[in-house]
Amino acid sequence: MVKTLKANGLSRLFGPNVAVNDISFDLSKGEVLGFLGPNGAGKSTTMRMLTGNLAPSKGTVEICGINIVEEPKKAKENIGYLPEMRPLYKEFKVNEFLKIAAKLHNVPSSKVNESINVAMEKCGLTHMSNRLIENLSNGYQQRVGIAQAIIHNPEIVILDEPTVGLDPIQIREIRKLIKEIGKEHSVILSTHILPEVEIVCDRVQIIDKGNLVFHGSIEDLKQQRRGNKLLVGLKKVPTLKKLQSLFDIVKIEKSEDALHVIQFKTNDIDVEKFITTSIKEKWGLYQISPHITSLEDTFVQLTNT
C-alpha cells in the first residue's frame, strides 16, 4: 500500500513537560484512521505537528514523502483540514465560499469550477449551491466544511470532531460521507465518540499522557474487548477456590440477570474444557459466551494504566 503519511519518533516538549513522547505510525491511501485520546493526552499537539502548525522537538513527519518541516508549503498542499471550529464565512453562498477556498488552496483558475462541482457532489451540496451558508442546517454547514477540506483533492484529509453538535440523522449522514471520502483519500478522524470509531474507521490509535497506548485494526480493538473473561449462566455456582483448582482463574463476580463473569489469567481460554467440566461437575451450565467489554471500559483500561 502507498503510504501517504509517516510519523517517526514524534516528540514534543513544552519546557520540562513532555506533551507527546516518541510516537510512530503511518497512514495508507484509502484508509480511515481513528485518533482517540482523553483531554490533555497530547492528541491536539500531535494533530498540530501532523498539519505543520507545530514543529516537533524530535522526530519527523512525511506527507507523501515530503518532510513537513523542511518543505512545509509543498507538504501542506497534500493536506485538507477541517478543525473542530469549522472555518466558514456564513455570509457567503456555498459556491462563493468554495470558490474562495479553492483559490486559497491554489487550485488553477481553469479548474476552479470543476473542483467546486466535484466537492459539492461528493458532499451532497449540489442543490444547496446558491444558498447562504448561514441559512443551512448544522449538518449541511458541516458538509460545507468538509467540502472546503477536499476542494483541492488532497491525499490526506484530517477531520477534527466532525460530528459534534449534530443530530442523530446528521451524524449518520456525515459518517457515511467520511467513509466515501476514505475510498479515495487517506483520512484521519479525531473523535471522542467511541462507537464512531468502529463504524467509520479501518484502524484506530489511542494516545494517553503523550504515549501511544493502542494502535491496531478495528479487529484488534474488538479482540481487546473480548479479553480474558467468560459470561456464564450456572444453576450451581462453584466457589472461586474450586474453579482455581481446575482452571487458571483470577476471579468470579456476579453480573446482570443472575449471570457471572469469570476472569482468566490469560486470553487463551479453553471454552470446550470449561463446558465439559461444567457437565461433569453438574454445575447446570445454561449459557456461555465471551464477555465483551464496552468500548468505554476498554478505553478507560487503556488510558488508566
Which characteristics define this entry?
elongated, Rossmann fold, Alpha-Beta Plaits, 4-stranded antiparallel β-sheet, about 300 residues, alpha/beta, 6-stranded mixed β-sheet
Beta strand % = 25-35%
**Alpha carbon gap, first and last residue:** 33 Å
> From N to C, what is the helix and strand string?
EEEHEEHEHHHEHEHEEHEHEEHEH
Reported for the largest beta sheet, the result is: 6 strands, mixed
Structural class designation: alpha/beta
What is the CA-atom radius of gyration, in angstroms?
24 Å
Q: Helical stretch count?
A: 11
Shape by Cα distribution: elongated
The CATH architecture of the domain at 1-78 and 182-226 can be named as: 3-Layer(aba) Sandwich
Mean pLDDT: 89
What does this structure look like?
With 305 residues, the chain is α/β, with parallel strands linked by helices. Among the domains are: 123 residues, 3-Layer(aba) Sandwich (Rossmann fold), CATH 3.40.50; 68 residues, 2-Layer Sandwich (Alpha-Beta Plaits), CATH 3.30.70. 34% of the residues lie in helices and 29% in strands. It is built from 11 helices and 14 strands. The strands form 3 sheets. A 6-stranded mixed β-sheet has the order 6-7-8-3-9-10. It has a 4-stranded antiparallel β-sheet with strand order 2-1-4-5. A hairpin with a 2-residue loop joins strand 4 and strand 5. The longest helix is centred in the middle third of the chain and has 14 residues. It starts with a strand and ends with a helix. The relative contact order is 0.13. The mean pLDDT is 89.
